From TrEMBL, chain A:
GO terms for molecular function: ATP binding; ATP hydrolysis activity. The keyword Manganese does not apply. It is found in: Cell inner membrane. It comes from Neoroseomonas marina. This is ABC transporter ATP-binding protein. Residues 21-272 form the ABC transporter domain.
Automatic annotation (TrEMBL), chain B:
The keyword Cytoplasm does not apply. Residues 87-276 form the ABC transmembrane type-1 domain. It is a multi-pass membrane protein. The keyword Membrane applies. It is found in: Cell membrane. Keywords: Cell membrane, Membrane, Peptide transport, Protein transport, Transmembrane, Transmembrane helix, Transport. This is ABC transporter permease. The chain crosses the membrane at residues 24-46, 89-115, 136-157, 254-276. InterPro entries: BP-dependent_transpt_permease, MetI-like, MetI-like_sf, OppC_N. Belongs to the binding-protein-dependent transport system permease family. GO terms for biological process: peptide transport; protein transport; transmembrane transport. One of its GO terms (cellular component) is plasma membrane. The lineage of its organism: Bacteria, Pseudomonadati, Pseudomonadota, Alphaproteobacteria, Acetobacterales.
Length: 340, 291
């Protein structure tokens, strides 16, 4: 845990506790001759027990790849490429053999996917799909596992759990399926839940219910959640801390309130400014960030955001800025961060 | 409404409704059921022992007397009894060969499709190689070395006709393994074998089922071929194929000896084929929009 100790703790309440999940310098460089795609480029963060860390960024910023690397779910030929360190409760996930990693997946670290419509096996009953990891990881008999599956369905507020347990996924609505997915992922009470855009495919009211459910289950089970999303509203509602990703790097990390109140990185400021607000007199045009995310192959040598940045200074092109602490618990990777 | 792969379980009712609407398939299924029943209860229906010789009563025409409703053959054996017992042989060979075909084909197809890469290449080139030889030729070569028993004939037919099934299964697996639920299963700690056989294979059940039906028909036909050529079921055991062989010497004078087993083979093959067609339509996920 020496790597973890070198980083200052963010919040006073959690200060005493060592992080449950500690990610250091996670990197995925994909050689695509003649370029190297720096899809994920030195990502570091900590996740504490019972905490929700929001990982926010637009499509292609590397957030989903980060999640897949944590779970070691990248398929060959990408599977051999990740570098860095992922420590979960002391074990280094990057060096575990596949068998021991399988034993952790679903048991200690679990994942909810974006698409509830396709993430369930269409020819297996919902109850069976919840029961399987229980039998596999906890060695329950199939009868005990079936009973626990029903209990899990009740816990995620699915009405008539006994009936739903016997149903096939196509009979359930999107929201119900995502509840079922959460029941499956949390069945073994994992210490860490990675939720990759868990509400993106759902409509807004259902989205709010699912987020509420995640928060409730977190209070109940004490799981830590890594919530991956492109939606800042979701973050504001659910997360304790936020890490903003841009072009494969974390550019700003802060407690939710601090980030929304005083964003430091120009990219974060741009993101927040581009959210339509109801209370404001409608602006003639919604502010947007000029330009596009650079392709992973043609990033500038320095700060990847520089070409789109209004605050760019001469030093920005030379080398990428390190993620440095500005206030307590507030870290920014910018050569010329905004103040207040 | 699910747009994913065909899901036979849980939708059996819907599939049955659609199958029932397919008249020919229903007729095919009925014929198949009738043939299976007659083969199963052959001893009850057969007027006498199919190998009982009665040289005094050779070449009796059909419908002439009640003792031999479909007449007798060149050795005075009762044709109806031989047809019923021959059906046992033909259908047994058909079903055992189908099971062999499906198991081999599914195993090779899922291994190739799921593992991909070198394994996929090697297995598929092996499939190509097997497909280069005419099946009858393969059968005759093997039959020359293996003594023909019911089991050996079935296995040999099965082991020379699994290639299409393996291609069908491989294609299905290639499509299925990219689906989210496979990644979800991995994220829950499922092993490769578990993903292959518990998650993927049941999802490929529909095309496998259809292929299986059609394979019974072609295996029955194959058995007839090789029995006709004399390498199959050996006399005095009756099979539709060797009944045809025996009949060919008398085709100009007593044609019914050839026509009857020929008709039985035709009925079986058509019954299974229509059933397979109906199943294919009923299980096709793209047609799932109708009520």
């Amino acid at each position: 845990m020496s790597a973890a100790a070198s980083l200052p703790d963010e919040t006073g309440a959690a200060a005493a506790e060592a992080p449950l999940l500690s990610v250091r310098d996670l990197t995925l460089h994909i050689p695509v001759p003649p370029h190297v795609l720096r899809a994920v480029d030195g990502v570091s963060f900590d996740l504490r027990r019972g905490e929700t860390l929001g990982l926010v960024g637009e499509s292609g910023s590397g957030k989903t790849l980060t999640a897949l690397m944590l779970m070691r779910l990248l398929e060959p030929p990408l599977a051999a490429l990740p570098r860095g360190e992922v420590r979960l409760d002391g074990a280094d996930l990057m060096t575990l053999d596949e068998k021991r990693m399988s034993a952790l997946r679903g048991r200690t670290i679990s994942m909810v996917f974006q698409e509830p419509m396709t993430s369930l096996n269409p020819v297996m009953t919902v109850g069976r799909q919840i029961a399987e990891p229980l039998v596999r990881h906890l060695g329950l008999s199939s009868r005990e596992a079936a009973a626990r599956a029903e209990e899990m369905l009740r816990l995620v507020h699915i009405p008539d759990p006994a009936r739903v347990a016997r149903a096939y996924p196509h009979l359930l609505s999107g929201g119900m399926r995502q509840r079922a997915m959460i029941a499956i992922a949390l069945a073994c009470r994992p210490a860490v839940l990675v939720a990759d855009e868990p509400t993106t495919a759902l409509d807004v009211t259902v989205q709010a219910q699912i987020l509420e459910l995640l928060a409730e289950l977190q209070r109940e089970m004490g799981s830590a959640i890594l919530l991956i999303t492109h939606d800042l509203a979701v973050i504001a509602e659910t997360a304790h801390r936020v890490a903003v990703m841009y072009a494969g790097r974390i550019v700003e990390e802060a407690p939710v309130a601090a980030l929304f109140a005083a964003p430091r990185h120009p990219y974060t400021r741009g993101l927040l400014a581009s959210i339509p607000k109801i209370e404001r007199v409608p602006a003639p045009t919604l502010p947007e960030i000029p330009g596009m995310v650079p392709g992973a192959g043609d990033r500038p040598r320095g700060c990847a955001f520089m070409p789109r940045c209004a605050r760019a200074v001469s030093g920005c092109a030379a080398e990428p800025p390190p993620l440095a602490e500005t206030d307590r618990g507030h870290r920014v990777a910018c050569w010329n961060p905004a103040h207040g | 409404m699910s747009a994913t792969a065909a899901a036979p379980q849980g939708q059996i009712g819907r599939v049955w409704t659609r199958f029932r609407r397919h008249r020919l398939a229903l007729a095919g299924g009925f014929v198949v059921a009738l043939l299976l029943a007659s083969a199963l209860f052959a001893p009850a229906f057969a007027p006498q022992d199919p190998t009982l010789l009665d040289t005094a009563l050779r070449f009796r025409p059909p419908f002439a007397d009640w003792a031999h409703p479909l007449g007798t053959d060149e050795l005075g054996r009762d044709t109806l009894s031989r047809l019923l017992y021959g059906g046992r042989v033909s259908l047994t060979v058909g079903l055992v060969a189908m099971v062999t075909t499906v198991m081999t084909g599914a195993l090779i197809g899922i291994t190739a499709g799921f593992l991909g890469g070198v394994v996929d290449n090697l297995l598929m080139r092996f499939v190509d190689t097997m497909l280069c030889f005419p099946q009858v030729f393969l059968l005759l070569v093997v039959a020359a070395f293996v003594p023909p028993t019911l089991l050996s004939i079935s296995l040999v037919i099965g082991l020379t006709s699994w290639m299409e099934v393996s291609r069908i299964v491989r294609a299905e697996i290639l499509h299925l393994k990219e689906q989210d639920f496979v990644a979800a299963a991995r994220a829950l700690g499922a092993s490769r074998a578990r993903i292959m056989f518990r998650e993927l294979l049941p999802n490929a059940a529909a095309p496998i089922l259809v292929a299986a039906t059609l394979k019974v028909a072609s295996a029955v036909l194959m058995e007839s071929y090789i029995s006709y050529l004399g390498y199959g079921v050996q006399p005095p055991l009756a099979s539709w194929g060797n009944m045809l062989t025996n009949a060919q010497g008398y085709f100009d004078t007593v044609p019914w000896l050839a026509i009857l087993p020929g008709a039985a083979i035709t009925l079986t093959v058509m019954g299974f084929n229509f059933m397979g067609d109906g199943l294919r339509d009923a299980l096709d996920p793209r047609l799932r929009m109708d009520p």
